[in-house]
Design brief:
Keywords: Cell membrane, Hydrolase, Membrane, Transmembrane, Transmembrane helix. The protein is an all-alpha fold. 75% of the residues lie in helices and 0% in strands. α4 crosses α8.
Length: 177
Amino acid sequence: MSEIKGLLYTTDLNTLLLFNKSIKCRLLDRLMPLLTQLGSALFTISSCLLIILIGKGETRGIGLKALVSLAVSHLIVHLLKNRICRLRPIDVLPNLNTFNVAIDYYSFPSGHTTAVFAIATTLAFNAPLLAFVGFPVAFIVGITRLYLGVHYPSDVLAGMALATFTTAAIQFISNLL
């Protein structure tokens, strides 16, 4: 079992270092701190509220489902972060490229990734054509978290899974109502 755990950690670390150290250029150094904001609380909550405020009928319902999914998944993220207490890569690995992005203390799971995947998954369930926009944006936000050195790949994958599961559950419940 410890061999598997060691392999998973090594893979996690090597993938993080690939994105943070090997894939580097000035353009990405400028873009990634901006693109990561697409998963911020300000952007994701504002997006949901905007859909609710300007949408009509079914569109307004999609915005509400996205907001509920965002809220529930965000609550779970905070519970997990405070329970697991995984330090961020920039706190553990001395020579990571960092970009002074605002972060809280713990790493697992990625809140930005969870937030943007909650919205993308809600769109996929309710307006499937928008999934062609939502999921690429969500994947980009996940990659920015690695590039910026603030999350391990497993943090990002956990955020994706958490958002997908939460949104699927909310979609199922809303279909029953």
